[in-house]
Every structure is written in C-alpha cells, then in structure tokens.
Amino acid sequence: MGTSNAVRWGPVEREERRMQAAALFEQGVKQAEIGRLLRVSRQAVGQWQEGGREALVARRNSARSYLTPQQEQQLWRELRLGASAHGWEGQGWTLSRIARVIEERFGVRYTVPGVWYLMDRLGWSWQVPKTQAV
Fold first, then answer.
1. How many CA atoms lie within 13 A of 52 on its CB side?
2. What is the pLDDT tens value at each position of the chain, 134 positions in all?
3. Distances from the Cα of 86 to the Cα of 17, 42, 76, 80, 83, angstroms
4. Rounded to two decimals, what is the model's pTM?
5. What is the DSSP string of the chain?
6. Which of 83, 81, 103 is nearest to 93 (CA)?
7. Which of 8, 9, 65, 128 is 20 to 30 A distant from 71 in Cα terms?
8. How far apart are CA 92 and CA 82, in angstroms?
9. What is the C-alpha to C-alpha distance for residues 54 and 19, in angstroms, rounded to an integer?
10. Is 120 in contact with 98 (CB distance < 8 Å)?
C-alpha cells in the first residue's frame, strides 16, 4: 500500500494559512507568490481573495440540528400526515419536499444532504414499500 506525501492540514492550520494570505493581500503580494509561499494553488488564493478577510474565518463544523427538539417532534408529526397533506400528489416524501416543509414551517434552510442526515438521525427510512396500500 502506497503512502502519500501530501500534507494534511487541520481546520486551525487552514484558517491560519488563510489569515496569512489576507495579510499578504493587504501588502499587495501577487496571487502566484502567495500560493508559492503558502503551498497552495493560485486558484485557491483567488477564491480566498474574493471573499475578503471575513470569508476566510473558519466555519465551525457542528453536528447539531438546526431545529430544536420540539421542532423536530413537530416536523415528525407534519411528515406523518403525508406529502399530500402538504399539497403534493401522493404520499411519498422526497428530501427536497422535506427541506421545503422545514423552511416553510420553521424558517430554517437545509441542504438536501442535510435533510438526509436529519431524517436518518430521526429514524426515518428512505425505503419505499413494495406494494401500495389499497
């Protein structure tokens, strides 16, 4: 099995590197030179430069839900009513539909993968029954 010589940077080190880049931007150093000094691509430096210093601060990754436990219980009840109770044809839920219900009911935006993780955490299955109830 081969080993990689690639450097693995943690979130603190990545933020420090971006802050170094911000200081270099302010000194007028060119993108290519910043990339060489910080060992990143010129394209990465360009993306950092576009957002300004505020955009370079690391976003803290959080496994918490955007919904409170009470909102999760309310969402559970809403979903149990079925998709047709919310204006869609048929009883089937899609992740996009669930995201829309969450945004409309609670004012919280979820990405489709975020809805997937939330539903998994709440014990919902993606499986569809083989036969439809009559």
1. 1
2. 444 444 556 667 777 888 888 899 889 999 899 989 988 888 888 888 777 777 777 665 444 568 888 999 999 899 888 888 888 887 688 889 999 999 999 998 888 888 988 888 888 876 665 565 56
3. 47, 48, 13, 11, 5
4. 0.48
5. ----------HHHHHHHHHHHHHHHHTT--HHHHHHHHT--HHHHHHHHHHHHHHTSPPPP--S-SS-HHHHHHHHHHHHT-GGGGT-SSS---HHHHHHHHHHHH-----HHHHHHHHHHTT------SS---
6. 83
7. 128
8. 7
9. 10
10. no
What amino acid occupies position 104?
Answer: E
Per-residue tokens: 20:
């170094």
